[in-house]
Amino acid sequence: MSHLSSPPQKHKGERKGHGLPRGSERGSSSRDKDRSVTVSSSVPMPAGGKGSRTNCSQPTPQKVPNRLIITGPPWPRDPIPVGYSTCHWCHMMEEESFQNEEIGRLLNEDFVSVKVDREERPDVDKVYMTFVQVSGLPGEEWLPVHVGPLPSPWPSLRQATSSGGGWPMSVWLTPNLQPFWKQNKSTLLENSQRVTAALLARSEISMGDRQLPPSAATMSSRCFQQLDEGYDEEYGGFAEAPKFPTPVILSFLFSYWLSHRLTQDGSRAQQMALHTLKMMANGGIRDHVGQGFHRYSTDRQWHVPHFEKMLYDQAQLTVAYSQAFQISGDEFYSEVAKGILQYVARNLSHRSGGFYSAEDADSPPERGMRPKEGAFYDPKGELQGQNVLTVRYSLELTAARFGLEVEAVRTLLNSGLEKLFQARKHRPKPHLDSKMLAAWNGLMVSGFAVTGAVLGQERLISYAISGAKFLKRHMFDVASGRLMRTCYAGSGGTDYAFVVRGLLDLYEASQESAWLEWALRLQDTQDRLFWDSRGGGYFCSEAELGAGLPLRLKDAPLHLSLELPFCSGQIVICGDPQAKDTKALLQCVHSIYIPNKVLILADGDPSSFLSRQLPFLSTLRRLEDQATAYVCENQACSMPITEPCELRKLLHQ
């Protein structure tokens, strides 16, 4: 199989500012152009978007025909179909509804249709998905959502417009094909006010004069108990089909294990997380030929996947598998993490350092044919369960069964996978959604930085550095201190939270304080734009971007910004960053699972950024001119430590 190539470098012709470097990308495919509304020459198209405005420095496209029957502008307000570029169900909804002349006529005559890309405007998506989730509506939240801001009675609120890809038309039209609002306008308006009031009440998380919430220990125990009750003992995971990877849950279980190591619950949490990660990696949800993970499994066994690949899944799963390696020492997990990064470096990386959003689930089985779900991975029919690769037995069991050495089996397996990989290159590639999202790029910076630090591989850390440089060069406005969600759109709260987390992880991996300085500046901007000074917590959108929405929601990912006060301690390494003894102490720390730690390298320079921010660092000295570690907790530091083995013992206590 191919290995990671060198990280992307700056190319000639690249310009500073927010525009991407000039040049064609695989993401600007015919599918993007065919789906776009006809645009004037004064509004250039983004590389991977769908008709959105852009300030990227890219060539202005020619006018192209609009394949969609429905004429709808991007979001301002009014009825909204919410989907995204690489979703199979969104393609079905487009084909069965938006290209159907009869449905197009009905929507154009009786509705105001507005398209939303949920990745460009996650705040819009979140409001309407929150309504779907809290309203008790039947169905799956991962289908395309089509909701009106003036809600009607429950059955008419949500649908994919045809029975083939969602709900039949009778759900939202009267038997004579008239919209409900024509006959029930007063009722709809009344229900609209009630629903909006209910959403506003539910979104209010301010404590006000109420009693304090349960402690963190109580809440984490409740979460563990709920996960334990829903755990799939045989295949791992926490739900029936469809099954999603949910790496955040797995990282929570590792954290829970660490704080309950001596209890039965702690052992149970570790076992649940490790078993789930192993079953996913052995299942068809993992692409064993090209690496990376698909969006979700359509069955309980992790066998038949939904074939799109999302950047944020790759990023978070990379961290989860790296954590599993730290905890277990089993190289199975580190190999999976490296495979994910190999896929991202090859398929989702911009030549100047950024990361693309996703690869589509659909592609033509052969050139010139109609796109089909999973055709790139399994052109003969993925739903028959005959051609999706899974791992049934370990290398050791397979070697014993056939009387071979383990390394011989490994060589044969890798040779077969390489042949399959080369054969796959001759098929039409899936559409690449080449949008650059700040939040997801921040997650991917974390993925490369954390794994590179854990494995001691500078090459992986260099990818994280390139990604962070791309963010700063193309998606950060120096004058205002603001991030842009994409290179052509406004920012959201999760952009800051995930980019800040990525920069903190990159600082700990590289020990370059410039990343820490930028993280602090972004955190200040996030506090200014999103912090609720009256009720506490962070909104997920700026006030000006939220105009036109019925409410501003507060988002769980922004709690990442609140983790620092609850860190598990500070570890200070005093030494020359390039010296072997300093690197040995740093690698000792990176090899151990310590969530929410603060790792600082003090080089002894009193004028450095860290020394100015943390004056106490000047009191910590090297012992006998050797690199020296201090473990600090509860405002006190340990005795100086110079040997990695002694530091490891202390950190394991």
Summarize this, please?
The chain has 653 residues and is of the alpha+beta class.
Please give a handful of descriptors for the protein shown.
653 residues; alpha+beta; Glutaredoxin; four-stranded mixed sheet; three-stranded mixed sheet; 16 strands; globular
Description of the structure:
The protein has helices at residues 30-35, 88-98, 101-110, 122-134, 181-203, 216-229, 247-259, 264-282, 311-328, 331-347, 395-402, 406-424, 438-455, 458-474, 493-510, 513-530, 580-590, 609-613, 644-652; strands spanning 80-83, 116-117, 145-147, 296-297, 305-306, 309-310, 358-359, 362-363, 372-373, 432-433, 476-477, 482-483, 570-574, 598-602, 628-633, 636-637. By secondary structure, the chain is an alpha+beta fold. Among the domains are: 1-11 and 215-348 and 355-435, no CATH class; 80-203, Glutaredoxin (3-Layer(aba) Sandwich); 567-652, Glutaredoxin. The chain has a four-stranded mixed beta sheet, with helices on one face. It has a three-stranded mixed beta sheet with strand order 2-1-3, with helices on one face. The chain has a three-stranded antiparallel beta sheet with strand order 6-7-10. The longest helix has 23 residues, at 181-203.
Order of strands in the sheet with the most strands? 14-13-15-16
Kindly report the oligomeric state of this protein: single chain
List the uncertain runs. 10-68, 73-82, 138-168, 379-383, 557-566
Strand residue percentage: 5-15%
Q: How would you classify the helix and strand content by structural class?
A: alpha+beta
Q: Give a quick account of the main beta sheet: strands, pairing sense, barrel closure.
A: 4 strands, mixed
- Shape call: globular
User: What is the count of β-strands?
Assistant: 16
Task: Quickly count the helices.
Answer: 19
Helical fraction? 40-55%
Determine the N-to-C terminus distance: 40 Å
Mean pLDDT: 76
Give the radius of gyration: 26 Å
